[in-house]
């Protein structure tokens, strides 16, 4: 029993550390992940004898399919480094079943989300105001930093709004600070792709809140947020970035100039679409993509700027050109399975008497927000090409799912 308590404490600590340290320490997301993996391996004799819920098996299947897709990139030309990404997907598998056996408390997870959001904003201010960097980037790049900071801020706001009555004044203040500072971290990064993703996340989140709670004032809150967002676009740094993006689009349309940030993305998208249509079912492969891209540039069929990156600056187009429709379907499952597992159905958020469990609703909505945000971020960035994007998603999904499973078992006593 003492060992079991230790495993449970590790799950709680890992749930807090993973989002809590993600952005303001070097590889901060790795500390919680390493703790969870260590606890999962040590506790194998315990959790392997327990029946895993179906949800855990579905999530593991989605991760395995994605790991198999990344394994297709492994080759002599890329060295041992090509095993890095599929290894992460396989190493998270024992953590899924460990967390289902020793599920963390949701309160520890929310604490980590709030601390991570606050830390990202404060560190962003430190980098831009003290170190005088032009953009906040944490210990990754500005795009990853800004997008994950925004995601943590959105999760903090969601938890604050859904569970407002239960929070003490100091907890409300903490979560409000998390929303403001996490949003500030995104603004200080000047990552425009994250702002674009808000157009997807805010309406869906508002609709789900009204659908599940019946509180139509949420739509009024959404309108207020839109007005705030419009006001923020007038800030000097934000206004400049938006203006630059508009100008770069216009320049690309008029002259095909692709050396700018937006122009390069548009050139990558066009080339990836054209190459993908030539091999729509199996794609070109990672090596084939690079070789064919170089050939087309040499032949004058694509601008030289597309050689600067090994991806297409769009998650779906990148897999379409490299792995064809097969790769796109695997990616859809990678995002779609968690989306289905967290969708706030009555069985997940209400008890037999029809009473709503707001903790379960928060976990469901945060779980829906996770894949939706990655889809939005992936429109202008290959988010899964970066360690931070992979590790955060791979471990936040099972953490949220395990915490939700814990609530369901306590409410119904049934393992789904």
TrEMBL record:
User: For this UniProt entry, what is the primary localization, expressed as one broad class?
Assistant: membrane
Keyword terms, alphabetized = Ligase, Membrane, Transmembrane, Transmembrane helix
Q: Which residues cross the membrane?
A: 31-48, 55-80, 86-103, 108-130, 142-160, 194-210, 217-235, 324-343, 363-384, 390-406
What membrane topology was assigned to this protein in its record? Multi-pass membrane protein
**Cellular compartment(s):** Membrane
Output this protein's name.
O-antigen ligase family protein
All copies of the O-antigen ligase-related domain together span 178-331
MF-aspect GO terms: ligase activity
Q: Which lineage?
A: Bacteria, Pseudomonadati, Pseudomonadota, Betaproteobacteria, Burkholderiales
Q: Which organism is it from?
A: Verminephrobacter aporrectodeae subsp. tuberculatae
Signal peptide limits: none
């Amino acid at each position: 029993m003492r060992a079991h308590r230790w495993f449970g404490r590790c799950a709680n600590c890992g749930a807090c550390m993973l989002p809590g340290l993600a952005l303001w320490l070097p590889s901060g997301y790795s500390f919680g992940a390493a703790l969870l993996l260590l606890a999962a391996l040590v506790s194998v004799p315990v959790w392997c004898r327990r029946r895993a819920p179906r949800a855990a098996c579905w999530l593991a299947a989605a991760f395995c399919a994605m790991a198999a897709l990344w394994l297709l990139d492994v080759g002599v030309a890329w060295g041992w480094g090509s095993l890095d990404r599929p290894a992460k997907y396989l190493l998270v598998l024992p953590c899924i079943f460990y967390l289902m056996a020793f599920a963390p408390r949701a309160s520890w997870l929310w604490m980590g989300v709030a601390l991570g959001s606050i830390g990202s904003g404060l560190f962003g201010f430190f980098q831009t105001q003290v170190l005088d960097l032009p953009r906040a980037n944490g210990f990754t790049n500005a795009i990853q930093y800004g997008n994950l900071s925004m995601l943590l801020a959105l999760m903090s706001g969601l938890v604050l709004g859904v569970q407002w009555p239960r929070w003490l004044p100091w907890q409300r203040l903490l979560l409000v600070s998390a929303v403001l500072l996490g949003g500030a971290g995104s603004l200080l990064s000047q990552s425009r792709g994250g702002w674009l993703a808000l157009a997807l996340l805010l309406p869906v989140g508002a609709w789900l809140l009204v659908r599940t709670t019946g509180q139509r004032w949420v739509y009024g809150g959404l309108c207020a947020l839109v007005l705030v967002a419009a006001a923020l676009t007038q800030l000097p740094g934000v206004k400049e970035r938006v203006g630059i993006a508009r100008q770069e689009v216009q320049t690309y349309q008029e002259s095909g100039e692709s050396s700018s940030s937006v122009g390069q993305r548009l050139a990558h998208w066009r080339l990836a679409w054209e190459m993908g249509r030539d091999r729509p079912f199996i794609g070109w492969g990672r090596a084939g993509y690079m070789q064919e891209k170089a050939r087309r540039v040499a032949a004058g069929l694509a601008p030289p700027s597309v050689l600067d990156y090994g991806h297409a600056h769009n998650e779906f187009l990148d897999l379409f050109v490299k792995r064809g429709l097969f790769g796109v379907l695997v990616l859809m499952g990678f995002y779609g399975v968690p989306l289905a597992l967290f969708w706030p159905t009555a069985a997940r958020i209400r008890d037999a008497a029809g009473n709503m469990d707001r903790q379960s609703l928060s976990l469901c909505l945060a779980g829906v927000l996770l894949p939706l945000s990655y889809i939005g971020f992936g429109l202008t960035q290959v988010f899964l090409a970066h360690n931070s994007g992979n590790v955060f998603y791979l471990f936040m999904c099972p953490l949220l799912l395990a915490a939700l499973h814990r609530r369901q078992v306590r409410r119904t006593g049934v393992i789904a």
